[in-house]
Amino acid sequence: MKISGASQAVSSLGVTAVLPVPRVSLVIPTLNEAENLRWLLPRLPTWAHEIVIVDGCSTDGTPDVVRQLCPDARVVVEKRRGKGTALMRGFEAATGDVVVMLDADGSMDPEEIILFVAALMSGADFVKGSRFIQGAGTVDMTLIRMLGNRALTVAVRLLYGGSFSDLCYGYIGFWKRHFPVLASDCTGFEVETILNVRALKSKLRVAEVPSFESVRRHGVSNLRALPDGWRVLKAIVRERILPSLRPSRTAPASVAAERSAFEGSSTS
């Protein structure tokens, strides 16, 4: 089923209501991911508002592959290093109502994007993928990474509350209007943790959706389990001692308020 500008919902009285569908921006950081993009780009949903590729000066022709397979995609060149830097640049460039970030290596299923959008339309402010809830899974985690992720997840629960089942996973979606309270200056893989923690600190309504992680399709990951795990732990502690962030001024008080605000902006 192709989604256009609106979706239909049937009430208990049998009356069909037309609900607007938000414009969805897909943000994908890349660094020498040409071969993986040949698999990923054709599988991205055609109903997405835009695809934002943030490229870290690849030398394998990544931008050329993007222009060849997805001419309408926006390629943003980021000369500074790091996944965190690339994502923040992509979030700033996104023009949609909703932002969904995913990796370029083919480990995340693009068909799951609709789950993030549906959860946001149902009232969530921030949605994260989890590999450890019903219907999810992973075939790309070593024992040391799994144990480390579990320990860090428990640490966030103890320090910030919430009920996260998976912390270090980069499949995330949120309403673009909440970007000011999620933005950070982190540069590395700890960006995923920073986003999750700041969502909690800002009192955003957080939801998890199941996600299945496959293996990287081509190349070798830049992730280093121990050094990057240490960076994540330091980020968790640093965020805990920083002054609390104010809740997003645009965070609605209820699902009804969320829908009303979005519908109002759609008709203006």
Give a quick precis of the structure.
By secondary structure, the protein is α/β, with parallel strands linked by helices. It has helices spanning 34-40, 62-69, 83-93, 113-121, 143-160, 179-182, 191-201, 225-241, 255-267, and strands at 6-10, 16-20, 24-30, 50-55, 74-77, 98-101, 126-130, 137-138, 172-175, 206-210, 212-213.
Written overview of the protein:
With 268 residues, the chain is α/β, with parallel strands linked by helices. It has one domain: Spore Coat Polysaccharide Biosynthesis Protein SpsA, Chain A. The protein has nine helices and eleven strands. The chain has helices at 34-40, 62-69, 83-93, 113-121, 143-160, 179-182, 191-201, 225-241, 255-267; strands spanning 6-10, 16-20, 24-30, 50-55, 74-77, 98-101, 126-130, 137-138, 172-175, 206-210, 212-213. The model is unreliable at 1-5, 9-13 and 246-261 (pLDDT under 50).
**How far apart lie the N and C ends?**
27 Å
> What is the CATH T-level topology?
Spore Coat Polysaccharide Biosynthesis Protein SpsA, Chain A
Number of helix segments? 9
Query: Which strand-content bin applies to the residues?
Result: 15-25%
Q: Average pLDDT across residues?
A: 86
- Largest beta sheet, briefly? 7 strands, mixed
Helix content class: 25-40%
- Assembly state: single chain
What topology, given as strand order, has the largest sheet? 5-4-3-6-9-7-10
Given as residue ranges, the uncertain stretches (5+ residues, pLDDT < 50) are 1-5, 9-13, 246-261
Radius of gyration, rounded?
Answer: 18 Å
Q: Give the SSE string.
A: EEEHEHEHEHEEHEHHEEHH
General shape: globular
What is the fourth-level CATH superfamily? Answer: Spore Coat Polysaccharide Biosynthesis Protein SpsA, Chain A
- What's the CATH first level? Alpha Beta
Instruction: Provide the domain count.
Output: 1
Number of strands: 11
Structural class: alpha/beta
- The CATH architecture can be named as Alpha-Beta Complex
